[in-house]
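Exercise 3.2. Students should predict the tertiary structure of the chain below and write it as structure tokens, then compare their answer with the key that follows.

Predict this chain's 3D structure.
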Amino acid sequence: MDATRPPPNFLLVSINIPSYNSEKMIPFCLEGVKKQKYSDIETLVIDSYSTDRTRKIAKNCGAKIILCQGKLLESRILGIKESKGEYILFLDTDMILKEDTIERAVSLIKEEDLDMLVLEEESYNTNWFIPMLYSVSKKVVNARFKKSYAFDPLQGANPARFYKKEILEKAFRTIPKEFISKIIHYDHDIIYYESYKISKKVGVLRNAVYCVEPDFKKLWRTNFRYGASLRIAEKTPYWNLFLKKRGTGIGFEFSLDGFKALLLTLILRIVNKIGYYFGHT
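Answer key:
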């Protein structure tokens, strides 16, 4: 038996990946899943009716395909309902897991009696101006995990991505149903906020995942769409509660890296504003 693999009968982990026209990125994401040392995994791709080869690629990689007519928050919740695992990992198509991430996540959450984990992210590519800004911003965010407020959804950095399923099942029942099919931006923040109300037993898994950072064209396209979706977010109770204050979630530190992170924050907010006034969801 391979000593690097966990023994059989380990708890099942369900990896939920929302997708839409992701044929360029999803092969790398699914390859990262395939390389996991942890063996008891199911992969669900919740697809918003892609018109490219996304679903075909995912199916060929052994993923279960679920179609979703709603926006990103509904994709997350639909994935929770369809998952069979004890644990659920929210992954995006531009994220690549490190080979031991799930193995370490399961061990950490069990050993420290936690209900959810924030995954420390780092940039996969840093070879241009925008990816460099994202890379530096992630370092600023990751440094905040040492702060006393690190896991508070009203003040902290990244929302959790690895959960006990039972926590998520309780959390999504409290989200106002009239907004579930409409929310694009802040889907993670809303889920994490509701989960944190149920349990504050949250930790961080270091060195967990790579993010493939966008060029300016993709940054514009994604954040223009996010900006347009803010008109919906403003109507939710979460807006005045913490979303308006939280903004991009990147923040600022008094250092060279902090100024670079601030620059990315300003770029994202400008594109969001343009999307807010001129885009549509």
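Discussion points: Confidence is low (pLDDT under 50) at residues 1-9. The first helix runs from residue 26 to 34.
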